[in-house]
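PROTEIN DATA CARD
Card holder: Integral membrane protein
Chain length: 114
Origin: Cellulomonas gelida
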Amino acid sequence: MELLKNLLLVLHLIGWAMVLGGVLATMRAPKLAPGVLHGALTALVTGILMVGVIEMGDLHPVDHAKIGVKLVIALVVTALVVVGQRKPEKVTTGYLGAIAGLTVANVAIAVLWR
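Structure generated from the sequence above:
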């Protein structure tokens, strides 16, 4: 179970890296890079699976408040990315900044909230 959790964690972090990297790479000419949607979905799905594996394996106690906050942020980021993909005219530097800021906030919550 520990190995599966760690594999999911690696994939989760790669997903967030795809989101943040894709957004930062296109800040000057505001548009969403193609991999941003895949990264957001990867991060969302692997995060949910990781919590399930931790709960199922009784690896350590889960802080449900922290997971709830992270889930809401992940859903908002994913929704922003989906809307940005469907309506590219809405994507501005501020829009991309919001996605980047929420992504950094999600990672910071994971690391700093103990």
